[in-house]
Amino acid sequence: MKIRLENVVKTFETFRAVKDVSLDIESGELVALLGPSGSGKTTILRMVAGLEYSDGGHIYFGDQDATDIPVRDRGVGFVFQHYALFPHMTVADNIAFGMKVSKVKRDKAAIDARVTDLLRLVRLEGLGDRFAAQISGGQRQRVALARALAVDPKVLLLDEPFGALDANVRRDLRRWLREIHSELGITTLFVTHDQEEALDLADRVVILKDGRIVQQGTPQEVCRDPQSAFVMKFLGDANMIAAEVRDGRAYTGDVSVDAVGVADGKAELYARPADLDWSEQGPGIAATISRVLDRPDGRRVLAATGAGEALEFDVEPERQVRAGEAGFVTLRRAKVFAA
Amino acid sequence: MRRRNVLPGLPLSLGVTLFYVGLIVVLPLAALVIKAASLGPADYWQIISSPRAVASYRVTVLSALGATVFNLFFGLALAWVLTRYRFPGRRIVDAMVDLPFALPTAVAGIALTALFANNGWFGSILGEFGIKVAYTQLGIMIAMCFTSIPFVVRTVQPVLEDLDPALEEAAQSLGGSDWEIFRKVILPLLTPALMAGVSLSFARSLGEFGAIIFIAGNQPMSTEITALLIFIRLEEYDYQAAAAIASVLLITAFVMLAITNWLQARALRYTVKG
Amino acid sequence: MSNHPSRRKPPRVGDNPLFRRTLIGIVLVIGFFMVLAPLVIIAVEAFAKGWQVYRDTIIHPDTLHAVGLTVLAALIAVPLNTAFGIAAAWAITKFDFWGKRFLLVVIEIPFSVSPIVAGVAYLFVYGLQGLFGPLLDAWDIKILFAIPGIIIASMFVTASFVARELIPLMQAQGRDLEEAATSLGASGFRTFLSVTLPNVKWALLYGVILCNARVMGEFGAVSVVSGNIRGQTNTLPLHIELLYHDYQAAGAFASASILALLAVFTIIAKVLLERQGAGRVRKTANPAEKTS
């Protein structure tokens, strides 16, 4: 099922949560809505579900205008942030609930069979008789997903699906959700504030800020070509160095990088820690190391330029560096945005 | 702007609520206010400031104050003992705290009267010391204490139970004595709940009727509470006077309700959200 | 007093043994005088003139009639207040609307207004000198000084009881479960019955029991509107007063013992329900929110 949002607006009291958002989600696509808290991502998800009504614009499911269809008739599967499992029902009863209340009558055997299938799909065979309080967080998450899938939704919507889980459980479930998606091919939209999660899982990432879409594209597109300083910073660690643009090149100290399309004048230069190189001799941006952090996959160096700008970069694990050392930083790659 | 609700049932549930509240609560109170207002300011003032009415306010308010002060200390002690200590019979005592809520006021009234009458179990002992309870203001106070003690205990108890032990431990690690920790850490955290409970207790005492009329002497000017005066005016078919004095109690109840709500909101002040 | 090392805990504030024992002692003594003694004296006084007098009082037609009327009032007022409490809790906790805070305060009013004031207020609605009195009189409908008046006055004083128990709990539980059920296609009624109700049933029952106890024991409001006609409009509490002022103390206490028994049952029911988690909003109302 293809989903289209057309100029959708949502206002809470005096605060505009979502401002004129248009978005197309192709059938079978797995899309992440990524943004900091307050960016409107959950509100958009809830509007797609029908758990919130938009104040303007339209939402289409295929060719059908779904804007005014109430949630119970919209045919979406929604996985709540804290799962919202019915605490007084067993896992199996939770999963069966949607089928039991459905207008399409199913007999008990059919429901039981489907519950068994779903339990197998989410790898919870044998836990059907447990209550929500008796299973782990990761298991609850999978029950919530099975419950949402039980009614054969046209669209699967997940609100911060892994937000309440430990880091390692989170990584496993992420891979697993991707597998389920490939298996079922259901159009899926999920909300997260964790860029790693969005990039790992989604076919396409939609980045939001203050109720507007600031950039969207495949993980490759948004990572390699961030269109704004916000996206650059939000997707990962970034160094900011003040620079001056002249004729399509940005200059800072002895260093210059390509800045095609950026107007002449003051600019901000952004570079990932991995794109900075450290050497004892110039040329480069003069800096002094203030601290060295050892990590399993390398050494992270914190340094400060002569102008007092903080820099972070990575060096090989074998490289001997020490706090107090002076040297020079060169740039392998950088993005420049007008200040 | 389209404003619709996602969950079903608002028209039905809100309709039922408004209809019921309107018919059962708002309509009679409005009728009372209309009746009282029909008196005109001069007559109204004359009735509510008549010496007998003023004497009844004094008896009611002073007794309620006395009862509330007692309940402040005893209620706090009771809540403390029930949450902090384990002793045989604690659960029974905990359950018995609700007896004044569950026991009909008229039943409480005759029971207290029997206990504190001059020939009663307690009355005869107290009489030896020259203390008269039944048919005096002291009796009114005791009836008020009885009916309102659960308010203080049940408001303070949950807060005391949820008090983070780490706060006390922190204070202990900083070298505070028990009394200092109680005064400076525990009591301030309990105060909002304690005040909310106390104001509920005071409000209840102001309006109490059944438990009091048996034990009070009901003598005009000395042991006649305001609620009883209203009742007497009704029996004399002086409906306007009844309405006027009842409106005073009603306004007091509103003021107490506002104070209590405000205090209860403050009581949640230290609760970390989320 | 275990000496097992692993069970020893450092003392908390107020754990000084002397202080602890003194405080428990004081509380128990005052508690006994204030709370337990009234219960004991009812039993003692009820049987003061022997079993025969007790029995005669209980089976006296006036007493039985008063019991019947009290039960009738409860049978009507309690279900209506329960329906109201559920509707109010649903409207207030599942929706946002203008004036909600004000509505909450209005629902609290009956809890804080003196029952005498409530009785008087009803007089000015349905009494002869009230708003609808003349109209009702013309149609020959009797509400005041008759059974309907008693029932309506009881409804006023207990109107808040069920709502007061449900609202904080349903507020704490949020709307997620209902939204989940609705997103799975359940109707509103179905959502309430199979998702909301099972999670609030103990609190609801608790509210119903408190409401019932108060309806059966209500004195002030009912005494204003009843007219105290023996054998006709006397509820049990009014009957007690009548006997008491008739200098039939043993009879009054015998009748009171019925209500005292009701109070004891109410407390037992309350304790049992609290074990099920009613009466107190737990911090994590939704166990699914506890991550393990």
From TrEMBL, chain A:
**Alphabetized UniProt keyword annotations:** ATP-binding, Nucleotide-binding, Sulfate transport, Translocase, Transport
GO MF terms, alphabetically ordered? ABC-type sulfate transporter activity; ATP binding; ATP hydrolysis activity
In the record, biological process GO terms are: quaternary ammonium group transport
| Residues annotated as domain ABC transporter | 3-235
GO CC terms for this protein? ATP-binding cassette (ABC) transporter complex
The record, for SUPFAM superfamilies, names: MOP-like, P-loop containing nucleoside triphosphate hydrolases
- Matching PROSITE patterns, A to Z? ABC_TRANSPORTER_1, ABC_TRANSPORTER_2
Answer yes or no on keyword Translocase: yes
Q: Which family does it belong to?
A: Belongs to the ABC transporter superfamily.
| PANTHER family according to UniProt | SPERMIDINE/PUTRESCINE IMPORT ATP-BINDING PROTEIN POTA, SPERMIDINE_PUTRESCINE IMPORT ATP-BINDING PROTEIN POTA
* Designated name of the protein: Sulfate ABC transporter ATP-binding protein
Give the species this sequence originates from: Endobacterium cereale
TrEMBL record, chain B:
SUPFAM superfamilies given for it? MetI-like
- Database matches in CDD domains: TM_PBP2
As one GO molecular function, the record gives: ABC-type sulfate transporter activity
What InterPro entries does its record include?
CysT_permease, MetI-like, MetI-like_sf, Sulph_transpt2
- Kindly state which keywords UniProt assigns to this record, in alphabetical order: Membrane, Sulfate transport, Transmembrane, Transmembrane helix, Transport
Oligomeric form and interacting partners: The complex is composed of two ATP-binding proteins (CysA), two transmembrane proteins (CysT and CysW) and a solute-binding protein (CysP).
User: What biological function has been recorded for the protein in this entry?
Assistant: Part of the ABC transporter complex CysAWTP (TC 3.A.1.6.1) involved in sulfate/thiosulfate import. Probably responsible for the translocation of the substrate across the membrane. Part of the ABC transporter complex (TC 3.A.1.6.1) involved in sulfate/thiosulfate import.
> Which NCBIfam families does this UniProt record tie to the protein?
3a0106s02, permease_CysT
Its name, as the record gives it, is Sulfate transport system permease protein CysT
Species name: Endobacterium cereale
Gene coding for it: cysT
Automatic annotation (TrEMBL), chain C:
Which stretches are transmembrane?
Answer: 21-44, 64-90, 102-123, 143-163, 203-229, 249-273
Residue span(s) of domain ABC transmembrane type-1: 67-274
* Domain of life assignment: Bacteria
Keyword Transmembrane helix attached: yes
What is the annotated localization of this protein? Cell membrane
Tell me the keywords, alphabetical order. Membrane, Sulfate transport, Transmembrane, Transmembrane helix, Transport
PANTHER family named in the record: SULFATE TRANSPORT SYSTEM PERMEASE PROTEIN, SULFATE TRANSPORT SYSTEM PERMEASE PROTEIN CYSW
Functionally, this protein is described as follows:
Part of the ABC transporter complex CysAWTP (TC 3.A.1.6.1) involved in sulfate/thiosulfate import. Probably responsible for the translocation of the substrate across the membrane.
- This chain's protein is named Sulfate ABC transporter permease subunit CysW
The organism is Endobacterium cereale
Which gene is the coding source of this polypeptide chain?
A: cysW
